[in-house]
Write a structure and sequence with these properties.
The protein has 186 residues and is an alpha+beta fold. 46% of the residues lie in helices and 17% in strands. The protein has helices at residues 2-25, 33-43, 73-91, 96-102, 109-114, 139-156, and strands at residues 50-57, 60-67, 119-126, 129-136. A 4-stranded antiparallel sheet has the order 1-2-4-3, covered by helices on one side.
Amino acid sequence: MNWKISLHFASATAALFFLMPSLVRGQMGQTSPAEAARGEKGMSFDLEKTTHHFKLFPDGGTIEITANDPSDIVTRDAIQRHIAKIARMFTEGNFTIPILVHEQTPPGVDTMKRLKSELSYAPENLSNGGRVRITTSNPQARNAVYDFLRFQIEQHKTGDSPAEPEPAKRKHPANNLGHDARPVPP
């Protein structure tokens, strides 16, 4: 009986050991080895050394890529070059990298191309990677961005929320129970 318990314990320990790197990174690997190879070709860095996040915001969203090892300067620099490159490409309406990686045109891309003048793509460097902040005030462009980011969340299995974000609550002087309201003129 003890050897059966030992065997189950050893199997569980081995499974945990092999799954742990993915759990620590916060995302599972690419959906297939072929997609991983296409991703590395399009992104110029090892996808296994990085974590992707795609977030939806009331005015657009972000594509964020970080190096799993904060001391991996080579990967961080490659990510930052890639982020700057895709911000430029997307601004021009060029989405060849996500099309190459996924072997299909992601949802939302056709609308994002058509409404490219309504969208802003701002690259931002992070201490261990970078992000592209996508903003728009056009509801149709925003919905296309949401479709694009939701597709990325699903394809990259990031665990990020695909839910539509709550609109930002704006503070307004009249919404503070009159504490700074001016008296009504007589």
